[in-house]
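U., I forgot to send this yesterday:
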Amino acid sequence: MVNLVEAQKPLLHFLVRRAGLRQHTVDVDGAGTVITFWVPKDKVPKDKPTVRDEATTTTDKKPPLPPAPAAKKNDRPAVVLVHGFAAEGIVTWQFQVGALAKHYDVYVPDLLYFGGSTSPSTDRSPGFQAECLAAALRKLGVGPCAVVGFSYGGMVSFKMAEAHPDLVRWLVVSGSVLAMTDSISEASLERIGVSSSAELLLPDSVKGLKALLSIATHRKLWFPDRLHRDYLEVMFTNRKERAELLEGLVVSNKDATVPVLPQKILLLWGENDNIFNIELAKTMKEQLGEKTMLQSISKAGHLVHLERPCVYNQRLKEFLASVTATENHNPKQ
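Result:
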């Protein structure tokens, strides 16, 4: 029987290609760590052996990583969209790619153990994800860019912004936290009514997936059970590695610190987010300081970018237009 979710992928890929993006894989370290991307078709460096198309092979050479190249006068700003835990990149950001690609160079990676991305490393921390993503972006020649992170991808984005301020120039985060501390994890799980992150984020039954969608959305959605089963089969692969990612996510309260981030940051939130509620976002805004702004979107939950994509896209584009215009007029700011 045809998997309905898998059958829709060619249409989604067609629409993304129409927006000017192409699939490519970056060999991060020459030792088996690879990250799959959708990248602007005119920005794939054909002569670099560290980057390969789906039909080609990688090399074992490991050239030194270059610094983030300075943006050229006629370059369009780069925007990197980093997905969450329940779907790969292009599924997560399907309503944003077309809206952004008209004015920006859009890069959509799959984090390790999502899509075609993988690594032989045993490191499951958000910091390792951030380092691999930063290395891949540099190999693609991406200069100072805006990073948009959702949920788990927001935590990875915060880590990348802290470690690579020359690469991450601006940051937008939705439905996430700086770090998943013991107290935040326990409070969130108690509020939601589940015993563990894996129970919520790694469902293995139609009932479990329905519960996740119910918690993650403001509006109650209905899909046939078959679609839920097909989604589980396609989107929840690499279950062992993803369970380990969840285990590597939580840090003790005493080890958690608030980074000093130089970037301008937009926290773009669903007002009815039941996983990371708006109060957490307000606290985070105060912790991050005056360069951070918080905007909420009404009648939207954790999946704000999917529930209200038009409003989300408008807010996102307004922020990007503002910060990139400022950069053009004050390049050293």
